[in-house]
Amino acid sequence: MLTSEKSHSFPDMSMIILLTDGRPSSGQLDLSKIQENVQNAINGSMSLFCLGFGYDVDYSLLDTLAKQNDGLARRVYEASDAALQLQGFYDEVATPLLLEVNLNYPGNAVTDLTQSHFRQFFKGSEIVVAGRLQELETNTFQTEVSANGLGDQFLVEGLVIAEEWDSVFPDQEYIFGDFTERLWAYLTIQQLLDEREKCSAEDKEDITAQALDLSLKYNFVTPLTSMVVTKPET
């Protein structure tokens, strides 16, 4: 009875877990073709989670495959705690709480939103969405969070009260400037880098330029930028 109840405590979710300990060595060897074949085979019907073992694994390929198919990739290193690393991966994906999570904001209140739709929400994870507030006639607006739960639709509505930052945190100082704005920029950059892995060659150049501009503007070290350290002359 207890086992039966536990097995139906969370919504059903289809997923594929790919385990590999190396690089493609037989059959189709072209990486771009492998990505295309996997994406066509899954066709958005489920998420792909990739688990690579050892130091020879092509983690970049696994990461791209996972991002293209709404999953995540993890590497298990050859060490005495390999079992703990596997347990950590299992804990990440074992308990889906919500599926097809959408965070909705009125278009006249918020712009430049980061990702606001998430294929799944797992126990122990978190969701962060950032955007820019428009000039509002009032300081309140309605928000909505919807998702698919266990056999039912999950819906939460709330009223957001927008207050001036200086009145909420009058004494807060941050060495790099506005922390909230930098958080939005960081999430946007990460989102653009993820989109770059999924998009066509025609769109890749434009997305790369957007991510580079934000990285330089907000002084983030990313795969598109570098950090230069200068030592004072002695």
From TrEMBL:
Chain segments annotated as coiled-coil in the UniProt record: none
VWFA domain ranges (all copies): 1-93
Xref: InterPro entries: ITIH, VWF_A
Superkingdom of the source species: Eukaryota
Protein name, per record: Inter-alpha-trypsin inhibitor heavy chain H3-like
Phylogenetic classification of the source organism: Eukaryota, Metazoa, Chordata, Craniata, Vertebrata
